[in-house]
Amino acid sequence: MTPPKRIPFPVVDEVSRHCLQEEEPETVHIEVHLPGRLDPARMRKAFTEALRRHPRILMREAAGGRYRRRYEWELTAEPDVEVVSFPAPGRNALRDARTRSLAEAPPLSLSPPIRLEVVEGEGFVWGRGELRDQPPASRTQDSTVLFLTINHTALDGPACLRILATAAEIYGGKDNSPAPAPTRAQKQPAPSESTPSNWTRPARVAQGTPENSPGNGLLVTELPLPHRPKGSPYTVNDQLMVTTALTIAHWNREHGETPRPLRITMPVDDRPRDMTMPIGNGTRLVEVPFSPAELAHRKPEDMPDLLRRTAQRTRALKSLSRPQLGHGAGLLTAPVTPVTWRAALTRGLRKAAAPWTSTTLLSNIGRVPYPLDFGEEAGRAHAVWFSAPARMPRGLTVTTASTAGRLHLALRWSRALLSHGDGARLRDLFEHYLHTTEVAP
């Protein structure tokens, strides 16, 4: 019998594996809202077939000795467990599924390290600011929410969305090919004047009202896409970056924090979105800096200049060629010592570097590239949310995606830092500042 093929952990996977914490699981949550219902047997079959068509997702962590030099992924021909489940519908089904997605990471020891929960309900809709589990009677017919929970040590959100698009195509029999990426004029990145140094110790998100429980909290909301005048030198991503920076600066002022430079981590994903998309953790991280003066009580007439500066920075950072986590991470994961020794060193360095960790993370998926069309009965996705882990010392992540012409925002926080009420206040600030970025240049 041929032994399973093994693949050494890439740098991103190994660093994540070293730093796992049981109280704050490294999960990515994807939430897809459909207007109709799915057939359970047919959905299980379609999703399993999608896994086979992307075999790199069928993997588990291989067992190894204490003094091994590498962690390795072991590829499997079939899933070790039933990936798709249909929890019993009920009044709190949506809330409970979302809680599980934050609190329970699929184990790395079983293939694949993801799970899909199909929650059938009575037309889950949202009011102002967040989802409501009890919608008006006129909106309570035949609705489904897909919860895809991903162990982030193995995979990221865009890769698993690709799997879901393949499953939709198999299930519904309709083309779910990605839409072409928007074409923009290529401009030579220009250095941004007065760019803050990345060596400066950045601001932290000010302490709110922490909850007496471990793990992450989450708030999701739907907002209008911000208006951007035709020919603007900035993108919607730049508007979201500025909105996030102004939101945190305002929050910190409210909580009496001394103004400090902000640094916002931004994932950049250059992978193709078609069937050739590499499955795994494929984004590289860059950090966008803001000075205190740039974020102090901005007037409407100042906004075009701030957006232009931000666009220059993000373009320059995206154009850089660098490893996903920088050159230091490659040295840290070189297999020259036992993996347990490197794990201890990595955790120690992470703790020592905590004060210099970026203020927050903004992950903008952009326009969801796939129709996610499950056929006539289930329909096409009309809302898609993502959320990224929010461990301390950042303690807050902001994730956005656009579907059907609307912006879907997820705020996720560490309960050691913030409460649900704090999340609601941050949501209101985000909505306010997003509107201010719509001022025409």
Structural class: alpha+beta
Helix/strand order, N-terminal first: EHEHEEEHEEEEHEHEEHHHHEHEEEH
Mean pLDDT: 89
Question: What composes the largest sheet?
Answer: 6 strands, mixed
Strand portion, in percent? 15-25%
Count of strand segments: 16
Low-confidence stretches: 125-140
The total of helices stands at: 11
Instruction: Please give the CATH architecture of the largest domain.
Output: 2-Layer Sandwich
CATH class of the largest domain: Alpha Beta
Shape: globular
Q: How far do the termini sit from each other?
A: 67 Å
Number of domains: 2
Give the fraction of residues assigned to helices.
25-40%
| CATH-defined superfamily of the largest domain | Nonribosomal peptide synthetase, condensation domain
Describe the structure.
- It is a single chain.
- By secondary structure, the chain is of the alpha+beta class.
- It has two domains: 8-172, Chloramphenicol Acetyltransferase, CATH 3.30.559.10; 216-340 and 348-367 and 392-436, 2-Layer Sandwich (Chloramphenicol Acetyltransferase).
- Helix content is 29%, strand content 21%.
- The chain has helices spanning 11-18, 40-53, 93-103, 157-172, 236-254, 292-295, 303-319, 327-332, 339-352, 375-378, 420-436, and strands spanning 6-8, 27-34, 59-61, 72-75, 84-85, 114-121, 125-126, 131-132, 143-151, 216-224, 262-268, 284-290, 360-367, 383-387, 396-403, 406-414.
- The strands form four sheets. Strands 10-16-15-13-11-12 form a six-stranded mixed sheet, sandwiched between helices. A five-stranded mixed sheet has the order 5-6-9-2-14, with helices on both faces. A three-stranded antiparallel sheet has the order 1-4-3, with no helix packed on it.
- α3 links the parallel β5 (84-85) and β6.
- The N and C termini lie far apart (67 Å).
